[in-house]
């Protein structure tokens, strides 16, 4: 008896083929092989499992085994050809289904991260991929020394770690523009923390930025853009922390919101440094190290591989040129803000 779960339509013509082969000893024709492949594709599209389909063929083989004398070897060879062709068609259909699903997923991710789709329709599509866009979501973005796509070993390792730890928990993992992304509900900080830890380790010291949780269908793209901007800020400011949170760096977008005003401040406060021997960069590096170390001269000197005396001389020279004393709390804020602006605007390498 044929497996009850497998309709007879997927074995159409099989008994006739076996009967004819046993009498003639021939191999299957090209049309017969193609018909088996087509049946395999149809069975895959209908959602039937391949083991059950093979079992149904074997059951049908027993039921249709020729009673008249013939070559058993030819009959078994035909059975093998039929099952091989059927499995090939089945696999082809599965492959095409996977590719179609991947294309749909990639299209959804592009629309999600660029906000190009109708938000209502986007929310409906999101449920298919485990996201409820009516809730707040946060995005973490990881970049390493090389670009990654979803088929690369590093993203696969990070994704497997997420699945093993959290399972199906409304998490979306993907790659975009060579970076790894993780989208998680805004109230599940542990997901993004785990992603950041795994991504940092898997990329051999890569950097991860985490955007703030944002509500609604457009919240994902907002959080994603925050994370990207945070990575850009880290590169421009030389921030080397393995994990950066956009919420901790909100002052920098505020400082650069009026670019012209920041450029005016940089030129007014630091412009005189261009008159120093060797240009402004060495003295700007001195101020950067001094402020980054909490205005501790000894620590700044070690960072710059200078003696404390040499560092003190540079600070005095800065005071002479700019008229502002880095050691004076009342004048320090203007200088420090100008130094941050110079780093954000890439001055003096780039003309303002």
Name the average pLDDT: 86
- What topology, given as strand order, has the largest sheet? 2-3-1-4-5
**Rg over CA atoms:** 33 Å
Category by helix and strand content: alpha+beta
Please indicate the percent range of residues in DSSP E strands (runs of 2 or more).
5-15%
Shape: elongated
Return the string of H and E elements: HHHHHEHEEHEHEHHHHHH
**Which regions are unreliable across 5 or more consecutive residues at pLDDT < 50?**
none
Largest sheet: 5 strands, mixed
How many E-type strands?
A: 5
Distance between the termini: 84 Å
The proportion of residues forming helix, as a percent range, comes to 55-70%
Key structural traits:
about 350 residues; alpha+beta; five-stranded mixed β-sheet; 5 strands; about 60% helix
Plain-language structure description:
It contains 14 helices and 5 strands. It has 352 residues and is α+β, with helices and mostly antiparallel strands. A 5-stranded mixed β-sheet has the order 2-3-1-4-5, with helices on both faces. Helix 8 links the parallel strand 4 and strand 5.
Quick summary:
With 352 residues, the chain is α+β, with helices and mostly antiparallel strands.
List the helices and strands and how they pair.
Elements: H1 14-24, H2 30-45, H3 50-64, H4 72-114, H5 119-128, E1 137-143, H6 153-166, E2 172-176, E3 179-185, H7 189-202, E4 207-210, H8 219-237, E5 243-245, H9 251-256, H10 259-270, H11 281-292, H12 297-304, H13 308-322, H14 329-344
Parallel strand pairs: 4-5
Antiparallel strand pairs: 1-3, 1-4, 2-3
């Amino acid at each position: 008896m044929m497996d009850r779960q497998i309709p007879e339509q997927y074995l159409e013509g099989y008994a006739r083929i076996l009967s004819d082969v046993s009498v003639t000893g021939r191999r299957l024709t090209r049309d017969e092989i193609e018909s088996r492949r087509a049946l395999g594709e149809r069975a895959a599209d209908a959602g039937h499992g391949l083991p059950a389909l093979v079992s149904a063929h074997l059951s049908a083989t027993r039921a249709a085994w020729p009673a008249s004398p013939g070559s058993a070897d030819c009959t078994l060879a035909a059975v093998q050809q039929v099952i091989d062709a059927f499995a090939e068609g089945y696999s082809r259909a599965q492959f095409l289904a996977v590719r179609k699903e991947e294309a749909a997923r990639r299209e959804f991710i592009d629309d999600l991260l660029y906000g190009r789709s109708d938000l209502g329709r986007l929310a409906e599509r999101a449920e298919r991929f485990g996201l409820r866009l009516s809730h707040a979501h946060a995005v973490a973005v990881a970049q390493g020394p090389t670009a990654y796509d979803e088929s690369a070993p590093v993203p696969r390792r990070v994704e497997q770690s997420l699945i093993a730890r959290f399972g199906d928990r409304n998490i979306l993992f993907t790659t975009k523009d060579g970076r790894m992304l993780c989208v998680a509900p805004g109230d599940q900080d542990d997901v993004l923390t785990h992603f950041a830890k795994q991504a940092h380790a898997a990329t051999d010291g890569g950097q991860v930025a985490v955007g703030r949780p944002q509500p609604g269908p457009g919240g994902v793209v907002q959080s994603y853009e925050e994370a990207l901007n945070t990575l850009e800020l880290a590169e421009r400011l030389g921030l080397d922390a393995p994990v950066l949170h956009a919420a901790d760096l909100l002052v920098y977008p505020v400082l650069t919101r009026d670019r012209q005003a920041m450029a005016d401040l940089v030129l007014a406060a630091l412009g005189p440094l261009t008159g120093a021997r060797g240009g402004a960069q060495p003295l700007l590096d001195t101020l950067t190290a001094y402020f980054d170390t909490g205005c501790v001269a000894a620590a700044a000197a070690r960072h710059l591989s200078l003696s404390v005396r040499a560092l003190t001389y540079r600070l005095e020279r800065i005071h002479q040129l700019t008229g502002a004393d880095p050691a004076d709390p009342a004048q320090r804020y203007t200088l420090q803000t100008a130094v941050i602006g110079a780093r954000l605007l890439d001055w003096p390498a780039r003309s303002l």
